[in-house]
Amino acid sequence: MGIKVYHVDAFASSPFAGNPAAVCLLPKPFDDAWMLGLAREFNLSETAFLVRIGDEFQLRWFTPKVEVELCGHATLASAHVLWETGELKQGQVVRFRTRAGPLSARLHGGWIEMNFPAEPESPCKAPPALLEALGVTPKYVGRNRFDYLVEVEDEDVVRRLKPDFVKLAESTNRGVIVTSTSCSDDYDFVSRFFAPAVGVDEDPVTGSSHCCLAPYWMKRLRRRELTGYQASSRGGIVKTKVLKERVLLMGKAITIMAGELVV
């Protein structure tokens, strides 16, 4: 019997929007090389691998190039699949064991709410190569353990960015978040996320970047609950709420394809 695999659009309420992820339900742990090979085969920004351990699930995420320590959209997709396939009842909280520690997800008012660690940034000096690759004049530059965060003048600058991905890969460990306040009343802030160093030139909608964006904009806008819009070509909405050292991330998901791997 083949391994069940699902293609899910995360942070999306309709098909072909948000961020696509592959979700594999494994009967047992597989070796890293096999999982990386499959992630390359799917060629999505992330492929999630789930193994049941009692009432919890081990969860690992791979880009086509590397395993990553924290990923929001593939976690959202994984929770969606577990409820949709009946692996867990709709009312059950999903509990994951990950490299980033314990994560959880639950249904809340028609949205999937994930409990993630906050990843606040600290001010830093902008590497000249980073700003050259982005082609922007920053209002602020910070960094957390994963990424740089660059605030720019306004939403138009964010949307018009055309980075040099080769230079960007050379000047980052994982990626860079570019953000500004929103010009729309529908959202509080906008962002884009670039991670060519790990094989993803632009991620369509990035949950883990909002673990940094939420506390960043909370301090500036003085509100714990905020709505972000990631302004990639696909686009996606992420609702956030800061809880001390944790961040609640909320989004929707829709399954596009389901099938089996023949092994």
Task: Name the descriptors.
alpha+beta, Diaminopimelate Epimerase, Chain A, domain 1, 2 domains, 18-stranded mixed beta sheet, 22% helix
Walk me through this protein's architecture.
Helices cover 22% and strands 42% of the residues. With 263 residues, the protein is an alpha+beta fold. It has an 18-stranded mixed β-sheet that branches. A hairpin with a 7-residue loop joins β12 and β13. The longest helix has 15 residues. 48% of the residues are buried.
Overview in brief:
The chain has 263 residues and is α+β, with helices and mostly antiparallel strands. It has helices at 32-42, 73-84, 128-134, 155-160, 165-170, 207-221; strands spanning 3-10, 19-26, 46-53, 56-62, 67-68, 94-98, 101-108, 111-117, 122-123, 140-143, 147-151, 175-181, 189-195, 200-203, 225-230, 236-243, 246-251, 253-261. The model has no long low-confidence stretch (mean pLDDT 96).
